[in-house]
Amino acid sequence: MILNRIVPSQLDKRWLWTATIGFLLFLLIQVFPVTGQLFSTDTNHVLTRTEANVKALEWASDRFGLARENVEKTTVTHLSDSDTVGYLTKYELVDAFDKQWSATAPRDVYAVEIRLRDTLEGLVLYLDMDKGKLVAWQTKGNQSSEQVNSDLPADNLADRAMNYAMHWGVQADQWKWDGQENADGSVRFVSALPEIGQANPWLKVAVPNGYSAISSAFPPWQGGSVTYGVDLPASFTGYMDKQEHWAMQLSIFGFILPSLLMFVIAIVYTGTHGEHTSYRRGIFLSVIFFALYAGLTFNMIPGLRAGTWKMGASLSDNVSVIASLITYAAMALLTYFSAVGGDGLWRSMGRSLWPRWKEAGYGNDVLNSMRIGYFLAFILLGAQSFILLVLEKSLGSFSSSDASQSMYNMSIPWLLPLLAWCAGISEELQSRLFGIGLFRSWFVGTARKLLGREPSHRTASILTIAAIVPPGLLWALGHVGYAIYPFYTRIIELVLMSFLFGWFMLRFGIMAAIFAHVTLDAILMGLQMMFDGLPYDFIGGVFSIAMPAIVAIAIWWLHRTFRREAKTVES
Questions:
Q1: What is residue 146's predicted lDDT score, i.e. its pLDDT?
Q2: Where are its TM segments located (predicted)?
Q3: What percent of the chain stands above pLDDT 90?
Q4: Listing from the earlier edge strand, what are the strands of the sheet with 108-116?
């Protein structure tokens, strides 16, 4: 069989102009409105995790009387009030809320858990992320808060609770008692300042046994707490709960279970089409995928902790890491079988979308794929920005926050761009190379049986376009858990984007599609790093954007070097 080899070629002016327009749309729609100062490094300073840990230990010593030698372990976790962020974003109230409440009830905090030696008790300090100010705290372990004393008037209990809270920096004039008596002995206050929309912060104070308002001694903290949150409209919180429920259901029944079925099918097609390819195909990329994700898992342990914290679960870091590694190992296997099965499928249909290392022009193909990938990424960025803008205006789409994916929950934030390679490798091999190839073979094969002959070129082209939809939908359903609402926003966005990714693969080959995907993610992650407020991350953002080119040049050099050595040995 003569293969139609897809070779990455130079882009003509139409592609270059389209890429330029796409990049300008991305800047105008997504970048400028968010940063407001794209080319300025004058961003708010955010404490690093190490700085937050130092600040927490200082607070523990100064306000809680805990000596450093009594501290066994500390963990630092970035937490975000996602419902509040979503509400404020949806109704464009972020600036107003932050102006009034950022110092007292910030939406994002570092939670520093301090575990003490020789005791089950511990302490969690919540610090603002800019200066490390103590904004809340609570006891962990053996808690013993004061129960409501029926002999003491409720308003006296409120006064006593506020007096206790003032020891920890609470400003009494910003709060008023809500008039309720809580069975657990805590006292709840609501904001004395005007509401922001319908968002109203609250303060909850638990007074420990033994506290005396007239005592000059350092107030006890064991069994006490001073925490806060934000009251939101019931209609909005109910909406968010339903959205997360649907996202979870679609993730399970629309992505996880179909992915398991695709896993089995990929194994079958690897066996039936292995003669058209090599079983070594995809080994390197699958190993790279797993190695990168394994490293990122250990780098994102605080993020895993933030995810379980939000769900109210109490999983140890080790359990979360093991569960993640097992998941990524399964994904790596699926990536491998998708690579072999997909390459075999396309070659059996007379098309070669993936050059091989042993081919003389492989290094140049990688360089060309990288160059094309950058321009295709600009087109994708523009298309994605336009789609999201249309969905925002038509569906009222909005985003929230997800601390489990936060830069601030990374031990080494500079490793974030590696995630772009994980996504680009696995999703393009699974959804595009194997997914489109599988459904195209089914659709064209069905047409062949119905017609009793080979379908026309026009019919085959239409069926190829149709074959983009099922794996594109599966790919989209794998992203419904992201903090973008309503949940079907990402489904619409990514199904539309899948047509571009599929077209790019068919036109320029799978390597160009991978580089386009990696570059797209690397640019988004790089810009996120540039303005996250962490020290030196601006440089890391620049590196992220340049990373696909650096990798391609390294592969080209290695291929040229090994080819030269092989020729020397042969001669």
A1: 46
A2: 246-270, 282-301, 321-346, 372-391, 460-482, 494-518, 538-558
A3: 71
A4: 71-80, 108-116, 122-128, 134-140, 225-231, 200-206, 187-191, 175-177
* Cα dihedral across residues 298, 300, 305, 310: positive or negative: negative
Task: Copy the structure tokens of residue 352.
Answer: 């070669």
Q: How far apart are CA 570 and CA 30, in angstroms?
A: 54
pTM > 0.85: yes or no: yes
Statement: residue 190 has pLDDT above 50: yes
Residue 522 to residues 29, 31, 378, 538, 554: CA-CA distances in angstroms? 18, 14, 12, 13, 17
DSSP 8-state code for residue 13 = H
Beta bridge partners of 74: 114
Per-residue pLDDT at 37? 44
- The pLDDT tens digits for 486-519 are 999 999 999 999 999 999 999 999 999 999 999 9
Cα 170 to Cα 15, 47, 165, 368, 466: the distances in Å are: 59, 22, 6, 60, 61
φ, ψ for residue 38, nearest 5 deg: -55, -40
- Write the burial class of residue 155 (CB in 10 Å: 0-12 exposed, 13-18 middle, 19+ buried): exposed
Residue 294 CA to residue 159 CA, distance in Å, equals: 52
Quickly state the pLDDT bin for 338 (edges 50, 70, 90): very high
Residues 150-156: contacts with CB under 8 Å, at least 24 apart: 154/179, 154/181
**Position 320 pLDDT exceeds 70:** yes
Range in 25-39, 105-119, 238-252, 450-464 with the lowest mean pLDDT: 25-39
Q: How far is CA 274 from the centre of its chain?
A: 35
How many Å apart are CA 309 and CA 90, to the nearest integer?
24
Listed in order, strand segments (DSSP E) in 83-128 are 108-116, 122-128
H-helix segments, 117-176: 154-166
Is the Cβ–Cβ distance between 380 and 66 less than 8 Å? no
Q: Where are the domains of the chain?
A: 49-232, 246-570
Indicate the Cα dihedral angle 7, 13, 18, 19, nearest 10°.
Answer: 60
The DSSP bridge pattern shows strands 200-206 and 122-128 to be unpaired
| DSSP letter string, 363-427 | HHHHHHHHHHHHHHHHHHHHHHHHHHHHHHHHH--EE---GGG-GGG-SSGGGTTHHHHHHHHHH
CA gap 476, 495 in Å, rounded:
6
Residue 174's CB: how many other CB atoms inside 10 A?
17
